[in-house]
């Protein structure tokens, strides 16, 4: 089932297109970001839920790349250079007024050189022999809402690009490095395995089909804006599925009890990790 935001009130589980960012983020439901925070500590999740913050300026760049590649999203307002200070800063009264007005209109604001980088990154993605076809010919920014069958918790996700017939979900990432050999560490740091497992679960429940492949398209922020296409293997995702299951069950328990604990009391003994011992022994000479 696919529905547009204009035709339906978004209260029931389903697959929805045409939902603006601000509407999606206001929907109730445990997102992949919420799962990451629950895994850190329930208190972290609760604090962010109770203190929603406006998007950081650093997110504007990523949003602009998404909009340029996917063809949807917030429009971009480029700050005229004659409004900037002599050093290129946005500290002038005129620049601040331009930014405030553009943001009030729901636009992403960038400097001219930033938007040139956005265009170069988008061109690199769309001209890539593997990434380009993955991000064309199907549906961008599809929102999914579902109820977890075990805990009864409402969950949500937003697929950057959805090839429904092929059963492929694509996630576009702006990255410091698109080197596939370095992605595993970055993926764990930013919760990408949990994101993939969460979205796979939701689409499988809603479509009644097998979980889709979840593929990441990475593009580097720095020239020459190298691009790679990566996919976490089944063993990697199996661990993520367990972590997501734990986070959802923990969330349900916290909701039921009204308790959102932190890291726990007492002194926590810390053992040295295997890599610390191995690296130390390799470096020492006897």
From TrEMBL:
Residues 31-267 form the Putative exodeoxyribonuclease 8 PDDEXK-like domain. It comes from the Bacteria. Pfam families: DUF3799. This is PD-(D/E)XK nuclease-like domain-containing protein. InterPro entries: PDDEXK-like_dom_sf (IPR011604), Put_RecE_PDDEXK-like_dom (IPR024432). It comes from Amycolatopsis pigmentata. Gene3D superfamilies: 3.90.320.10.
